[in-house]
Amino acid sequence: MAVNLLLGLQWGDEGKGKIVDVLTTDYDIIARFQGGPNAGHTLIFDGQKHVLHTIPSGIFRKNSINIVGNGVVIDPVIFKKELDNLEAYNIDFPNKLLISRKAHLILPTHRLLDAANEAAKGKAKIGSTLKGIGPTYMDKTGRNGMRIGDLEMDNWKEIYTALATKHLKMLSHYDSQIEFDLNELETEFFTAIDTLRELRFIDSEEYFHQAMKEGKTILAEGAQGSLLDVDFGTYPFVTSSTTTAAGACTGLGVAPNQIGEVFGIFKAYVTRVGSGPFPTELFDKNGEDMGRIGNEFGATTGRERRCGWLDLVALKYSVQINGVTQLMMMKADVLSGFENLKVCTKYNYKGKEISHFPYNVEAHNVSPIYETVPCWKEDLTGMDSSSTLPKELNDYIKYIEDFVEVPITIVSVGPDRNQTINR
Ligand code: GDP
Ligand code: IMO
Ligand code: MG
User: Fold this and answer.
1) Of 58, 170, 240, 340, which one has the greatest count of Cβ atoms within 10 A?
2) Is 171 within 8 Å of 117 (Cβ atoms)?
3) pLDDT tens string 5-37
4) pLDDT tens-place string over residues 390-404
5) CA-to-CA distance for 248 and 251, rounded, in angstroms?
6) Atom of ligand 2 at shortest distance to CA of 131?
7) Catalytic annotation, pick one of 21, 26, 28, 41
8) Helix (H) or strand (E) holding 395
9) Is the CB of 274 under 6 A from ligand 2?
10) From CA 276, how far away is CA 13, in angstroms rounded?
11) Is 334 in the pocket of ligand 1 (CB under 6 A)?
12) Closest residue to atom 26 of ligand 2, CA basis
């Protein structure tokens, strides 16, 4: 039995939460494998909107088990808030939501370090969500981190104190000091740890191994997107985890030959939140229209997302690194009525035309080369069958499929669970 992956192919916020929620009915287990509360995954059904940060997006469906894998970093405080927000749904958390003992904990001082680090960078800041992601992964790879499994040890508070003390020393070295009330932060943290302990901690790699032997179906839910990957993204303007397909192997403990389908999600245009290069970014009315019609505000921080034309050079790059087998195109409805669409098919890189995603895509090196294609006029939001899609949209789909050489199997025409068309 294979593990299928679902990954964002751009700079995050492609609509992963919505599609995981749609696909969950086909799976026994949904598992997050990297990232943490920097993610904001939106689900809309029955007229209600939900935003999940660390909890996998299969949590609302009756039959699925949801697992937070070892590659994820967990902030107990945010996790508790997520659980509290779901109270009305009477979800059987101890049986439906399991956490890997090897997942790392985000301490309050990790968040402070994130803030201090960003402030020190000044204009060069990453635009982090300030959830402590970078410092927590640094402690993980630096072999200093604290894990969920540590909470089962008698001396866990000593482990906590040793790490927090180290962080406080580090904080004192920054030029500009961050204001905080440690007592308040720790009270909130320890209360949240008590809530976390009500859930089951598991050796998740063993759990997946047994589940696969029993023929259970597993969907791995990515966070962020390939262009935010710590290796392959627009470094240093990236997140601190492996957001690409390989991250599912290390973040869950499944082997490469156990990966089946790789679903790649992309928006019909492109957005980015935070700093960093964005070759097809628009600063005109088209960009404004995408933002307004697409309601492009971050699900975690509320920040306005930058918008631009579809970048096929970048999309093809993401498809290649991840071995995408099926594509899902989101937010096609947002483009209805645009006069024309532009798609970037090549870059002008230091005066030369190139068709691959290079080392550095900063604006002084790279400018996009566009083809112009016609846009559809019809409102797509009420459509429910691929036979009703307008010709111009079908042509756009075919153009993308021919370029990246992978079929588009789902077209999303609105934020609701039901506004999803299979092809
Ligand atoms: P994720 O991080 O990849 O899960 O994506 P987010 O939830 O951060 O952002 C996607 C946003 O687009 C959310 O507000 C969704 O409700 C919304 N959305 C998802 N699919 C569609 C779609 O096909 N059309 C429109 N208009 N909105 C969509
Ligand atoms: P989902 O899962 C969009 C961006 C931040 C910042 C950079 C580093 O909802 O798609 P970090 O907090 O990781 O230190 O921030 O990455 N970023 C995201 N952008 N969607 C996300 O997640 C993101 N998670 C992080 O804006 O530029
Ligand atoms: Mg998001």
Assistant:
1) 58
2) no
3) 999 999 999 999 999 999 999 999 999 999 999
4) 999 999 999 999 999
5) 5
6) 12
7) 41
8) helix 391-404
9) yes
10) 16
11) yes
12) 274
Å from CA of 42 to ligand 3 middle: 7
Residues 6+ apart with CB under 8 A from 285: none
Q: Quick one: which of 283, 341, 285, 279 has its CA closest to 311?
A: 279
Question: Is 56 close to ligand 1, i.e. is its CB under 6 Å away?
Answer: no
- Is the CB of residue 128 below 6 angstroms from any atom belonging to ligand 2? yes
Q: At what angle do helices 156-172 and 108-121 cross, to 10 degrees?
A: 20
Which residue from 400, 399, 397 is spatially nearest to 386, judged by alpha carbons?
A: 397
- Beta strands 218-221 and 3-8: pairing type? parallel
Residue 286 has pLDDT above 90, yes or no: yes
pLDDT digits (tens, 9 = 90+) for 197-212: 999 999 999 999 999 9
Q: How far is the CA of 324 from the centre of ligand 1 (A)?
A: 20
Average pLDDT across the chain, whole number = 97
- The verdict on the CB of residue 44 being under 6 Å from ligand 1 is yes
CA–centroid distance for 23 within its chain: 16
If pLDDT is split at 50, 70 and 90, which confidence band does 1 have? low
Residue 187 CB partners (closer than 8 Å, separation 6+) = none
Integer Cα distance of 131 and 117 in angstroms: 12
pLDDT of residue 176: 84
Whether the per-residue pLDDT at 177 is higher than 90: the answer is no
Cα 412 to averaged position of ligand 1 atoms, centre (Å): 9
Does the annotation count 41 as an active-site position?
yes
Q: Which of 9, 70, 56 is closest to 28 using CA atoms? A: 56
Q: Which of 243, 229, 39 is nearest to 131 (CA)?
A: 39
Give catalytic status of residue 13 as yes or no: yes
pLDDT computed for residue 301 by the predictor: 87
Taking only the tens place, the pLDDT of each residue in 30-81 is 999 999 999 999 999 999 999 999 999 999 998 899 999 999 999 999 999 9
- Radius of gyration (C-alpha) of the chain in whole angstroms: 21
